[in-house]
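Can you give me the bound-state structure? Components:
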Amino acid sequence: MITAEQKPLQEIFGYIAPYEKILVVGCNECVTVCAAGGRKEVGLLSSALRLHSVKAGKKLEVLEHTLERQCDPEYVDQLKELAGQVDAIVSLACGCGIQTVAAQYAIPVFPGVNTKFMGASESQGIWAERCMGCGDCMLGVTGGICPVARCSKSLMNGPCGGNSSGKCEISEDVDCAWQLIWNRLVELGIQDRYEELVAAKDWRPAGGGGPRKIIREDLAASKIITEDMA
Amino acid sequence: MSNFEPEIVAFCCHYCAYTAADMAGTRRISYPSNVKIIRVPCTGKVDAIHLMKALEKGADGVYVAGCLDGDCHFKNGNLRATAHVEKIKKVLEDLGWEPERVAMMYFSAGMGEQFAQGAKEFTEKIKSLGPSPASQTVGKAV
Ligand code: SF4
Ligand code: SF4
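Here's the bound-state model for the whole set.
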């Protein structure tokens, strides 16, 4: 999932300083799971903004709403009435949700979170990066461990000389991804795979070729048909 | 502000602190009437938002009273509550509020005297801090 963390409160206070009525919008998907921007966090942030305005002797009304999903225009449409009542919006969704809201409403929309990475939960309250969306997944040849996201240098044929006792040279708290890959290949009894050199990676599908887009002709076409029938 | 009587909300666990408060009552140990008790099935149920809402509605101080370390009926509810209280202390600091307005306390069901003492000390602390910024504008919540 996409992970995020709430921005420092001072930064959010700065964004909303000129406004008297704002809307805080959460999202029920990834940011709810990583406890950064779900209904609970919308409540907490709204409460903090109110307490701050009281202390600062400033007039501020805060409305709260959490959408099922913030990166689909159909859901974001549901904000129409609320957005019409406020001067600005603080969104607690990932960057995709924030941009979808900003594209649909002609009032300032501010990020309430820092979107971090695509990660998985290691245990309660701990998330770690697992994928960088390189567009050409190589987990099939690396024993299910991603060298793009988990090797500090995104090496295709590691490890480098920085591996020390299985840890990466950047920190003794970070596993060397290539050590993990090797261990896994041994575990699977396919360590001969390691002998095969991986060719230089084409980074165009990873974003090197500009902003990416997926067009599923079958789905996009059926939308046109449904619209025509309506 | 010598005649300031704070409004204090205490979230008390049914299995320990609430029973301790009860014991203080049956043993005629008095504690300040400023403290309004909300009984909860476990302090793990007291989320950060409950502390914030109490302050937002005008409480001058809020505390959570749970079981002694290792004694939680639901294993670690008291530790969760401690983490929530710590989190809200940090938020209050960022807001320019005194973090001492929220606190975590621990009692066993038999600690009626200590419960009363804790209530007294917390009330004194809040008295010394004065009314919270919100209680002055929204009036009394409880
Ligand atoms: S190889 Fe690419 S797609 Fe596969 S997990 Fe790694 S970054 Fe993600
Ligand atoms: S030590 Fe391992 S993880 Fe770190 S940069 Fe080298 S190969 Fe990558």
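A couple of observations. The domain at 2-117 of chain A is CATH 3.40.50.2300 (Rossmann fold). Chain A touches chain B through 14 residues (CB under 8 Å).
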